[in-house]
Amino acid sequence: MEPLRTSDPARLAGHRLLGRLGAGGMGVVYLGRSAGGTLVALKVIQAEYAEDPGFRERFRREADTARRMTSPWVAPLVDADPEAEQPWLATAFVPGPSLAEAVAAHGPLPAGTLRVLGARLAEALRELHAAGLVHRDVKPGNVLLALDGPRLIDFGVARDPEDTSLTSTGVVVGTPGFLSPEQARGARESGPAGDVFSLGCVLAYAATGRPPFGTGALDALLYRTAHDAPDLEGVPREIAQVVGGCLEKDPERRPTAEALARSLSAAAPASPPDPREALRAVRPEAADGPAAPHPVPGDTAPEDTAPETTAREDAAPEDAVPGDEAWLPEPLVRLIAERSAAGLALPGIDDTEIDASDATVPSPAAPEGRGAGRRRFLLLAGGAAAVAAAGGGALAVWGTPFGGGEGSGSGSAPDDSLPLYTIGLHADLSGDQKAVGRAQERGLRLAVDEFNARKDARFALAVKTADDGGDPARAPEVAKRLVADRTVLAVVGPTTDTTALASMATYDAASLPLIAVSPGATVLDVTGSRSFLHARVTDTILPFYLNAYLRGTAKSRTIGIVDDRASDTYGWEISSTLNRILRDARQPVVPKVVSALRTDFAPTLDALLDGGADSVVFAGYHDRAALLARELTRRDFPGARAAAQGVLDARFLSAAGDAAEGWAILAPVMDAATAPEAKAFAAAHRKRFDAEPERYSVETYDVAQLVLRTLGSLAVGRRTRPLLTTALRAATYKGISRNLAFDRTTGALVVDGSGIYLWKVTGGRFAYQGVAPYQVST
């Protein structure tokens, strides 16, 4: 960063300017601080160009393109005003070097880093291309390196492939040495394949330290790009073929950005026959599908160190992924850390710009206590924001405690002499799943109350609830409210699959860790979210337990599967995975798909009986399970009847009546009211709420314990949203209901056999049977 010049303004568009990050023909890029204290890269068009309609239109399109990008590998747009007297746009500041600077200073990158770099940039291009746009200037200078992955920047020449308003025949758009042959020839149209070619050039440069078509006079460079073979000498063998494919002269022969991302994120070796390892293959993948979402351990379960949280000590592989600082070589990690720390010396915002009268920051002499004055708080807030910007986040400040009771704050008022952090709860508290939402709220509050009652607590905790009513249309706004509260460092929830999917992007954009307790959709683990953690197994894992129960406990020889289309993806994941498991085991199976419009299950049962089924699995929800249950009872069906957690609902009991008797349910939820291992939790729950713990209360309690222990393991200056996400993904915790450990790449729960339980309908109620087996007993 260069200092401001005398001609530069001190403030612009509500931002305090701190220095110059760069300048070009159109304008200047400043390092600025927003009114909220966040560091941003502020790009401003110079006054003389702002009067030119063409330049203003280009800037307007750049802002519009940046606004449409939600990929985690694109520096997110914070705000923009293309219509201002001096048009400007602000993106989140990334305190890391450009790829060009990194290679010039530290040389070529190792193979593992190259794979991650290429895969993440390809993912960014995939989103851009899906929006009908092309970047047209992918080059090392437009790639920034952060601790959790690269960021693609500068959409100034991004366009629809058919939009030629910026160019004319014979005009080259892009950077020579990193543009495609079609761009080198001055073609009026440059499609997505041109970006892939440019990315191939970028990867070759990052691997060797030189452009693949050399340097020199412009006309010679353009000729070599259009006609000569690329120089790939020194590109690691693991990626040489992929890079070579990107650099095909014929655009039709290049991979798409999606295929490129898949190739560079190549999956692990084939699964061995061990049943636990077989969990890797939970569902058939389509040609463009992701790798299996759940990492499955070997014979060693997560370290049993209850109740403390422990960081994993296994060395990061060479091809570590974003979210793990080891994806970059140590010198670059050190460089980014130094630049982040340099933010501590930057001026803060004016006192008048935020209301911090209730906020404090610990002084060096008292790391966890009240202390420093207002000015020191503002200074440190600014520096910490620079650290958080590597993951797109911002500093979490500490405010006044929330009130007691079940309205907004924790039941036990925390000590106001300690720094305060908040755990948010995003839940359905008034809709169809309000019982689950209420149970999760109580589990979270109980953990927070217990923590605040500790005499050795070094900080205080509060709970902030947000109700989406189970409506996915409301979920993003609820997420925005929690994100806007800078005291919230982590969020538990949402309650359902649809609300989780609807709100994930909002949390991800803010690098706010989101830990889901009850949703089970597999798609949640393959969205590429940097901040999502899945604290339960996905629905595709449950069929392994259904298989073990039916073939082992129930001794079924031919299993009938009813895939209810009314349950959409949930039913399909259960039925298709179980069908595959049984066929792989050469076990007779009779699958049957039922239309969502059908309410008469008699023909379905006829087909199952004709196929010789002696047991039935229903892949659907409680309401239509009751229809099948009554038909089975009417036929005096003697075999086992089973389902997954979608039927573990009191409405199934009331709708099915006596026909519900004997049904077995395999679900990722414990009965904390009767489970021996939850005895202490149940007693505390009864004392606090004068009620029995409901389903998902103890699971939420376990997640809350993981969060607060991980938060306590971080130094005070590192308690930010992005760093907490990283720490959570690296932590393990042996809870009451299950062991918690996550894949560092996806945030998926590591499957170790814990956390799945068997329930049976006995005497008109769901009777808890304990831990479910996942291997077929012999």
TrEMBL record:
Residues 257-269 have a biased composition (Low complexity). ATP binds at K43. Keywords: ATP-binding, Kinase, Nucleotide-binding, Serine/threonine-protein kinase, Signal, Transferase. Belongs to the leucine-binding protein family. Residues 247-326 are annotated as: Disordered. Residues 15-268 form the Protein kinase domain. The keyword Signal applies. Residues 247-256, 274-286 have a biased composition (Basic and acidic residues). This is Serine/threonine protein kinase. One of its GO terms (molecular function) is ATP binding. Pfam families: Peripla_BP_6 (PF13458), Pkinase (PF00069).
